[in-house]
Amino acid sequence: MLRHLFLRFPSLLRPRRTWRRRVAAVVVPALAATGLLVSGAGPSHAAQAWDPKPAPMTTPWTNQVPVDNPLPEYPRPQLTRPDWSPLNGIWDFAVTSRDAGQPATFGEQIRVPFVPESALSGVQRKITQNDKLWYKRTFTVPSGWNGRRVQLNFGASDWETTVWVNGKQAGAAHRGGYDAFSYDITPLLNGGTNTVVISVYDPTETGGQAIGKQRVQDVTPHPGKSIVYTASSGIWQTVWLEPTAPAHITRLDMVPRLADNTLRVTVRGAGGADGAGVKVTVSSGGTTVGSATGTVGGELSVPVPNARLWTPEDPFLYDVTAELTGAAGGDKVGGYTGMRSIAVKDVGGVRRPVLNGEFVFQTGTLDQGYWPDGIYTAPTDEALKYDLQKHKDLGFNMVRKHIKVEPQRWFYWADRLGLLVWQDMPSMDSGKTPDTAARAQWESEYRAIIDQHRSSPALIQWVDQNEGWGQYDQARIADMVKAYDPSRLVDNMSGVNCCAAKDGGNGDVIDNHNYVGPGNTPAEPVRASVLGEYGGLGYRVPGHEWYPGGGFSYEDQPSISALNNRFVGLLDGIRQSGMPAGGLSASVYTQITDVENEANGLMSYDRQVVKVDQARVRAANQALIAASRSAGATVKLPVGQNVSIRVTTPGYTDRYIRHYDGLGFTEVVNSASADLLKRDATWTVRQGLANKLCYSFESRNYPGEYLRHRDFRVRREAGDGSTVYKEDATWCPTQGSGGIRMSAANFPGQYLRHFNAELWLAQSGSTHAWDNPAGFTEDTTWAIESPWAP
């Protein structure tokens, strides 16, 4: 998140049931466990009785989490098999020093997959770089799995995870906090009751790995104004067993190609599957649409004639099956896909991202994925879905998943509900320059994350780095990501204007952060201009604060009414000016929920309160999206030529903009006026100092001095070369009735207005006298005329 907060305010820091059911080849909304649950599964021996801890805040789902089988839904919706056995539930647990071996006793219990820092785990205490976590339980393999390989799968575990089965290590330790991993444990099984022991070491910010917003700190609410949050150590996504054939499919890489109505599929495999025959079928409602045969590791072209395109308005998903054939036959998996394309192209002379060939403005929020009860892990699948559904309810069509990678079911809900996803790669610590080992680990984990989610139709953009946190090799990394996944857009640096961030100069978008904004992201000839963060409007809801009285925001609002007016005003400003005049193509509002002491969410941290008027925000977002579909070329003014700027308000149409003693006024000008007045009322049109799609107005008789706003008053002033000056002196025109309206490049929605003959930067209905809505549109509409002083 943007560091303007700190620049402005330096003091701020901050016994089981068993069942079996078949899974269709297609994913259904909430796949339950489909294999026999492991019989006799549970803690390996009696330990201290498990109880949940009281959550700092209670979400609607806190008390709905099963003790023995939390998060029972099938965890991998794009690669499904009929049999599986979740290992979520109560495990024996211990914490030792980081260098210690396996403890002789496990004196605690923990509910997996909730991290020990969380209340839902039943542990709820700080874990530091000096600690190592230990998990233990027993299981037996169902007899129906005989003859098949048994895979032990992890959705995610943070950070270095080592696994032993029956006292023997299962492969190499896995390093990474956000990618899924698996072990074939077949050779380690004993045919009866098996014991699995897992150790996890997580140094968080004291290591060099990707950590996102995690920091070691107190796990219960405390004062502070930090934009980083409680760490999440150890297992935080579903752990499960799955039987497979010896030769089996491990991944489906699916890329829709609208140009020839095909789905390009590469089937990945293991256990001798490479080069084996494979058949992929695409269907809809049980009817085959197209199929193709080929080999594992090679690209198949599956015809999808007359494809129904995936869009946020119609997130249509096709069913996909893939099965090995020939000698390697025996494995069959299900999944789904959406047919859509994403690219950047010229639209009306402006570089825009286009979905299925058409520009649609992407309006979304920053979604950090934190929970007061589960921290990194949503308490239930319904909770995981809720935040995404709330985006839809509020009219957003996009979400930026910020500095975290969610479970695969989160992507399933985004795919099914229809939300465009910008996915951040979690950053390394912002206060360090990563060494060679840290860079290699970060890049390896990034590629693993891309592989894991490359087939999600909702995911349209990778965000490599954020505000310079742990930054290095920006251009090379952007090129690496684009080459590794050419089917998506790449953002080399979100918030390139912030915090000593460095722009790699490449990728598909140029991304600024502006608080409160919305602000200006200068247009470019190759990349689309986007606003990776803005807003941060705050309102603390009594009874729904993480630390009562400790919340902060980028701009506190005195009431719910003020919050609604201010937020809708920001959206309207983007619609009226930032998008059509400034060339802005996407915006990310901070943020969907409060997070710990950040009180700038559209919802409270406990998800109990939606702070804003849902219908009003939805209407504003829908109006913005609708306006983008008919966005034409930007207004053109005669660059390099002299003009005079006339008032169009009825009764005042003989008045023109002029400067007097450095301030901007309007005054009657006619042929009989003095030459000095005529020169004062003449301006040279220049390309916008801060945005090439906009304009700056240089004084005719004071070269080098421009019409700019400062403290709301508009004046003629010499430039100092600063970014602030350039933005203040740049005006973005839109077509009005009988003339043009000019908004400030850095404050879309605030306009050049004459009021009592003075020039002001004004926003209709705001708090100042010059914001009076009476006559506002007329007073902010101007005619560009021939110059009084050529």
TrEMBL record:
It comes from the Bacteria. Keywords: Glycosidase, Hydrolase. Residues 128-202 form the Glycosyl hydrolases family 2 sugar binding domain. InterPro entries: AbfB_ABD, AbfB_ABD_sf, Beta-gal/glucu_dom_sf, Galactose-bd-like_sf, GH, GH2_Domain-Containing, Glyco_hydro_2_N, Ig-like_fold. CDD domains: beta-trefoil_ABD_ABFB. Residues 646-784 form the Alpha-L-arabinofuranosidase B arabinose-binding domain. The keyword DNA-binding does not apply. Residues 248-340 form the Glycoside hydrolase family 2 immunoglobulin-like beta-sandwich domain. The keyword Hydrolase applies. Belongs to the glycosyl hydrolase 2 family. This is Hydrolase. It comes from Streptomyces rapamycinicus.
